[in-house]
Amino acid sequence: MPPLDGFTPWPGETAARYRADGYWDGRTLGGLLRDSARRAPGRTALVEGERRWTYAQLDATADRIASGLRAHGIAAGDRVLVHLPNVAEFAALLLGCFRAGVLPVLALPAHRESELTHLARLSGSVAYVLAGDDAGQEGARLAEAVTAAAPTVRHVFATGTADGPWKPFGLLLAEERGEFADAASPGEPAVLLLSGGTTGPPKLIARTHDDYGYNLRASAAVTGTTEDSVSLVALPAAHNFALACPGMLSTLWAGGTVVLAPGPDPETAFPLIAREGVTSVALVPPLVLAWLDAAELLAPDLGSLRLLQAGGSRLKEEAARRVRPVLGCALQQVYGMAEGLLNFTRLDDPEDLVATTQGRPLAEADEIRVVGPDGTPVPEGGTGELWVRGPYTPRGYFRAEDHNRAVFTPDGFLRTGDLVRRLPTGHLVVEGRVKEVINRGGDKVPVEEVENHLLAHPGVHDAAIVGFPDATMGERSCAFVVAHDPASPPARRDLVAHLTALGVAAFKLPDRVRVVAAFPRTGLGKVDKAALARSLAEEGAAR
């Protein structure tokens, strides 16, 4: 198979070193389930509602999907846009794609027309898979929008039984023909993940079988994930945190059981923990707070739970110290990114480190720099931008040459845009962001993208979005708007309706809207967003 256009490989000498040092083991992700199925075919691999799949059943289904992809003319190297909630078909489809050498492009369930059409075009996807029953008429609209915007999309498949402009997912399940011969190569891309920290439309990250395999194996080791583990996937499984840190894939590699939750709220998750004997779960900080408050109120049966991972944004120390006494389990803070680098507090770390830091790098080969605006190292213990390279941090975004030149150094370090402070122990404390991204409860709101959408509204002359602190979500967003006609400025409901009609995901909609006559400017003539943020703080203090 020819190299994938738009993929940036590691330099040859660097790749050889990672292989020699054992970080890359030369296996493909399609085999991760195969090994577990051979060890324990009758063990429960996957639970979703009342559906329970053994390893043997999931393994056979993955083979059938790999054959079904091939029967529909979807070949190794092709891309498939996957837009599914936490259902068993998501897991089976991913594993089938891995075996067929087909790259799943993982959209989030919250994504709508704006994001989906962009991802389909950027990736050159040849198929789109969505949840027909869950989406209803909205699903039909999205299917038509994606196929109209991306002429490469030849097939649309939907799970469920609802009728629409798609083929039933069952058509991907070819007749059983035994084991599908793995069509992938370890050094080739296996999956296209969504970047959570970009400043424009979503960017894609090509993760190879080699580097993502290390990612999930090492994540299993640092979390103690084994065949006895029962992992609750409460966040969207398409998110890197819930997919392989350790998440769904690491648990399947280890031979444990994955329980897919339809939602992360306590009312949904607590009964699943009690019923299935869940041992671990990953949450973003707002959900940690919701679980803590609900547990104090409801006193649920969480006796099986051993580990709660918190990531996606910084968990406040006060909340971190409540986890063990309230939920009865250990806390592990995780700071990571789909671009590669993962940091974990260790299971034997002192309580103070777990409560006040976001962990230390996963691999000894992770190379860390903490630098000032000029790119030189900051003094020990000082705050600076995090730069990183390593065996699971790719060397470029997919089909983004201009962006890659801006965010990767000539020697291959990724400028993460995160401001961190490094302790003598190697643990990192996340202090904020360099980039204009609002971290809304773990969902990253790309400011520039939403501003551009607002500027398309006929009533908006100019727009600027800033974040403001929020006790529940960490940050929320406020859109400052200069109206074309000051006498009849657009209301928030008008702007929300406009963004929704454009297919913008709900988490990107501004929580507040403020209409102003003009924006404050810096000495260089740029919008002074710090002044706008101060005005919000003063407004809050006056209440």
Automatic annotation (TrEMBL):
PROSITE patterns, per database record: AMP_BINDING
Residue ranges constituting the AMP-binding enzyme C-terminal domain according to the UniProt record: 449-526
InterPro entries found in the cross-reference section: AMP-bd_C, AMP-bd_C_sf, AMP-binding_CS, AMP-dep_synth/lig_dom, ATP-dep_AMP-bd_enzyme
Record-annotated AMP-dependent synthetase/ligase domain positions: 34-398
Protein name: (2,3-dihydroxybenzoyl)adenylate synthase
